[in-house]
Specification:
By secondary structure, this protein is of the alpha/beta class. It folds into two domains: 168 residues, no CATH class; 58 residues, no CATH class. It is built from twelve helices and six strands. α4 links the parallel β3 and β4. α2 packs across α3 and α6 crosses α7. It starts with a helix and ends in a 5-residue tail after the last helix. The N terminus is likely disordered.
């Protein structure tokens, strides 16, 4: 069982651990989204930046490879504001690129054109809500009037059963989707987080799904997956809370406490009954054995 203190302090996501810290997997992902077939991992530069809008948040992974600059974000819930976040990320990435490539910001005032790597922005969606395979999110959709600056985030659904061509092109991404799907399957059967993660990881190792990575990084993976609600899940719980009470004409943001409110979170697909009871401070036995069941 992972140490709870390590659990609370570990900040990275599983996605970043796989595709931001392992060059072999990073290059496989780069090739898949850019439709390339490069083999030299040493030429791929991995970038991780602080969020330009919220300094306590980091992006997932950024890659600079020859003439392409990739920003790849992983999302567990739909977020139409990803283009705005991407605008800040790319500004910082280009600032760093210019500093490293030209050694001086004065190059921006030169009469010569500064050549830049082409930006490409992908949002890999792995949430529980049903979404189409691909969707372009545009910064211009947020404008009240027509504007001159555009940022497009290509959102790709990487859940199992979606974007099969992409997943087949990147075995680590396909395996990642399989691991998440198995964990969700275990939780749907009533397993705790710990049981679901352990069972899913064991079965993946046995079946050769991310086997090498899971054997090497098992402790880190458990620290990430068993630490409780992710930030995305917390936001989703808060959203459901506010929407439900608004519909009922009650005070917005009132804390969910009643047994029946557990059903609201379970029905939303965000949480399994055990975790919903834990978060709301409700006894699972009381919830399970209530008279109306």
């Amino acid at each position: 069982m992972p140490d709870n203190n390590i659990n609370r302090e570990y900040k990275d996501t599983l996605f970043k651990l796989i595709f931001g810290e392992h060059k072999k997997y990073a290059l496989a992902l780069y090739n898949a989204v850019n439709h390339t077939d490069y083999t030299d991992e040493s030429e791929l530069v991995v970038k991780t930046l602080r969020d330009a809008l919220y300094v306590d948040v980091k992006n997932d992974v950024g890659y600079v490879f020859h003439d392409i600059m990739n920003l790849i974000e992983h999302q567990a819930s739909f977020n139409p504001n990803m283009p705005l976040r991407g605008l800040g990320y790319f500004a910082d990435m280009y600032k760093e690129y210019i500093s490293e490539a030209f050694r001086a910001s004065s190059v921006l005032y030169s009469e010569k054109l500064v050549h830049l790597p082409t930006p490409r922005y992908f949002v890999l969606y792995n949430g529980i809500r049903e979404m189409q395979d691909d969707l372009d999110l545009k910064l211009s959709d947020a404008y009240d009037n027509k504007g001159d600056i555009e940022v497009i985030a290509h959102m790709l659904n990487i859940n199992k059963g979606h974007n099969k061509t992409l997943l087949e092109a990147c075995r680590p991404l396909k395996d990642y989707a399989e691991l998440i799907d198995r964990i969700r399957g275990q939780k749907a059967q009533g397993c705790t987080n710990e049981e679901a993660v352990s069972t899913a990881m064991n079965s993946c190792i046995e079946d050769g799904v991310l086997e090498e990575f899971l054997r090497k990084e098992r402790d880190k993976v458990e620290n990430i997956l068993i630490r409780g609600l992710t930030e995305e899940e917390k936001k989703e719980v808060e959203r459901i809370n506010q929407e439900y009470y608004k519909e009922q004409g009650l005070e917005e943001g009132r804390t969910l406490t009643k047994l029946e409110d557990v059903d609201k979170l379970v029905a939303s697909g965000v949480l399994d009954p055990i975790k919903a009871c834990e978060i709301l401070g409700v006894s699972y036995d009381e919830y399970k054995n209530r008279p109306d069941q």
